[in-house]
Amino acid sequence: MGTHALPATTPESDAMEIYLDANATTPVLAQAREAALAAMADDYGNPSSVHSTGLRARSLIDDVRARARRVLGASTGRLLFTSGATEGIQTAVLSALVALRDRRDAGEAIPGLLLYGATEHKAVPESLRHWNALLGLGLQVQAIPVGRDGRHDLAWLRERAPRAGLVCTMAANNETGVVSDLDGIAQALEDSGALWLVDGVQALGKLALRLAERRIAYAPFSGHKLYAPKGIGLLYVREGAPFTPLMAGGGQESAQRSGTENMAGVAALGAVLAALEDGGTFADAATLQAWRDRLAAALVEAFPALEFNAPPALCLPTTLNFSVPGLGSKLLLDLFDAAGVRVSGGSACSAAKARPSDVLEAMGLPDWQAASAVRLSFGPAADDAFIAEACERIRACGRSLRESCLVPSEPKALPPGGLTRFVVDGACCYLLADAASRRCVVIDPLPELTTRLADLLRCQRYTVAAVLDTHSHGDHASSAGELRAALPELMEDVGTIDALGWPREVHQLTLGTLLLARLAVPGHTLDSTAYLLRDAQGLRAAFVGDTVMPGALGRSDFAQSAPLSFGTSLLELARVVGSGTLLLPGHDYDDRFASTLATERRAQPLLARVLGGGLDAAGFAAAKAELERDLGLTRYQTLACGARVDIRGDQATQELTAAQLRQLLLAHPDLLLVDVREPYEQRLGQTPELAAPRVRHQAIALSQLLLALPEWLALPAPTPVVFFCRSGNRSAQAAEAVRRLGHDQAWSLAGGLALWRPEAMAGEVSTA
Ligand code: PLP
Fold first, then answer.
1. How far is the CA of 219 from the centre of ligand 1 (A)?
2. Residue 349 catalytic?
3. Do 540 and 426 share a structural domain?
4. What share of the chain is helix, strand, coil (3-state, %, to 5)?
């Protein structure tokens, strides 16, 4: 009988989660939780009831409203409880637009513009468009441009304000923290009759809005951005400003917002407002500023090349938004998360690609900066120890990246060797390195990677034997020359090189025990070349460029293509590499990593036909041209390098919950568990430990996966291999790749370490 201690607890360092995403939402303050519990357990009455229980609830809601008036400086006007800022924004926009419609219907000429700041939260422009269309107003909805500092263009606004019916400008931006110049905006609106909506969400508790003094007509707030629960908010409406209820019904909130009140939320918000009033709970502005400066200094120490995306002097003292050249926001989020630090990507990440942040784009930041932004935000209930721990973990992130040579660093004594893959929008670049001889070859360099590769190689003390292309590209010039120029001291003197970078004097490139040879495979281009990698055990892999990609053959309709040679090249490739050798492509649009001719024959009927001898050169070229007619762009909006006939399907099928993993372990004690996070994440902790020797555990980063594939493919058919990572995305890619190559028992731990609960696997599993 054998037993396994299953993945156990997380290390000490992760006991305290450092939550630096307060602009997204905050935890609920202890006194707010208590107030909410009391409202549910004791004062649970309906404030509309006239009995004593109801009267107590009424008294509570009245007290909280009075407190909110004091805190917001809104002694007059309406102040209603809402479900949050989105509802407050709807109500304000509906109110303003109904008033405009009524004026129009009464025969008055109404202003034609609805203006909103270009960096507003989506809720504002979306509700402007929604109600403008629904009410049949047909007004022009326009974004007020912002400058590089994120502030509104006041001259632009002043010019259009007289023609505007509603102007919406947030008090402080959620992504950058940039604080709007509300007095400047008020001046720009002097000659305008426009109603003014100020989204106060990010300002609450951090900035005084002086609602009574300013001509602000509407100001929505949200509880969950300041330690109250989600689902409670406030809307201020200036006395005399138009108002239309969004919800009609039982007449609650003086018929301004029907629906039984969220009393737990109201009570919790009341506790937060009390904390704001009594001054003991939240740090003052000077303290917040000092904390932010400490965090900023730690970031600069960790990532010396970092750029702040908004001028700190113009920002909330609780928000930092930055980008690091060469490091995408995905990489940084993975890194921070591994250190137990929760931050947010400043941009919306679609499945394929980090879309640049609309806010940073509107500010005119360069694409790289807008696409790789990271936001770090804290709340005024933080304390000194929290900030100190946050700074320490940020520094640890920097150290981990330096250890991995991902930021410029002292040369490392022991460079890891092997084969690393880099992917940019589906295009693949490979670094083949031999640790013993400290020599390397770069295959298919990409311009986006020049700086990163140069830093990496310098840090790892490799010399570069060659920078090779597998073909001359149809859509761009190779960046090989750029990379060579960036590394003059590391380039070996190999005499003259050909157009693809191969040293003319050399028949075979030797890196320690690794050998690289060429095979001409004209087709995709006339000069297409495969590089064959051999070691002492024989042929290990072939870098095949775009000749054969997972699910596609390289297109051959470029001016430099040789379509009539393509079929023969495929037969030659098959003769030299056989059906099982790993093929490493120039493009991998579906995260399949590698392929083999056996796999591609199954997936691509045209390839099967030509390899089966069923097509001559002309027949193959014609059938292929048919496939390539009207090729669209890829999901990365780049030129497609081939017609994909086998596109990646549903990943959910290979996901395992923790409970399923437990079951699988019971049935298969020989299961192999593989951590595919990068070394810079693994180094920061939070690795589930497998104490029992019989549960095999490997750490193979996704970027280093390729040469490990054959080992997993050679496992006995029933042996499961379970990949895990931070969130389950990368492990799903690995599992799918291994399955496609033929090992059916490849799985991904659903939700990764983010959803990992040691309890789900707790205890010893008997494998008798
Ligand atoms: N406005 C700003 C500036 C925000 O940051 C948010 C929340 O992300 C909202 C509005 C929407 O708030 P709620 O989640 O309460 O609907």
1. 12
2. yes
3. yes
4. 35, 20, 45
